[in-house]
Amino acid sequence: MPAVTPSAEELSAGEFSPETLFIALNSFNRDGFLVLEEVEDAALIRRMNEEMIPERREVEEALVSSGVMNATHKAEDKPTKNCLHGPPSHRPELGSHKLYKNPFVLQVLNAYLGPRPQFIYTAGNNAGAGGTERQRVHTDMTYLHPEAPYMVAAQWVLSDFSPANGATEVWPGSHRLTTNDDHVYDPKMNLWIKEQLVKERARTHPPVQVECKVGGVFLRDMRLWHAGMPNTSEVDRIMLACGYSARWYQCRGTVKLPQGVEHLYESNDLVEVMAEYLPLDQYKQYRHKIMNDQFHTKLILPGKVGVAA
Ligand SMILES: O=C(O)CCC(=O)C(=O)O
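^ thats the input. predicted complex w/ 2-oxoglutaric acid below
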């Protein structure tokens, strides 16, 4: 598993040494994902998990009634029990605002995506307990995209992730060559990688499930093939994502936040916060959604790049 853990010196400095950064970037470029262990307060994360676990039924009902989550969610006709479950940004006492500005994540992303990336979305996935079905292999991209690193999801695990509770499956190195032609789209904006390509790659570069402990985060290049896996344990498994885009990509998306928390989401030298502050009732409608054009570029470019699929 490509992973780095800050030393005591790095923790007190709030940044990786050049040697650790070298190792981190090497792995991340090669594999398309990277685990950073022990970079956040585990007690804070556990508390957030305890508060979010009881929300599951309410979240599921809201998603189904708004038509966002169909019963299958990225698996042909079989319910996966995986649903979008956004962070509790309207409850600042739980500290979800700390995640987007984690200094270790930002240091790696400033090197991987170029200086001062833009924070452009939050999201979350809840793999419901007692799942039996997996998602199809996919990349989250319903649009044409550049072949350079341009966007990363920092995925915070709210409980220790292992195959038993549906740790995300990733396909090492798949980000380097994948294009939109590898995908199948269906009318409901579901998308997945063509079955034949998945079979071929499995023979030479098989997938792994990302193991990560509370207090750690895994970074995923948006081009990486991945899939939600069944959580066969008895407890729901939640992951919260903060999404960052390279400045040059000029992403259209904004992170939806409730009014009143502006002071907790300030831009700094390492990140620009692209926020849209909404009245609480509107924020709640967006909390568990990702908009269809969330990841598209604003640029109008010749050829295919940047044009919505
Ligand atoms: O929850 C997970 O582990 C991954 C979910 C996912 O990839 C998705 O819903 O697009």
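The chain is about 25% helix and 20% strand.
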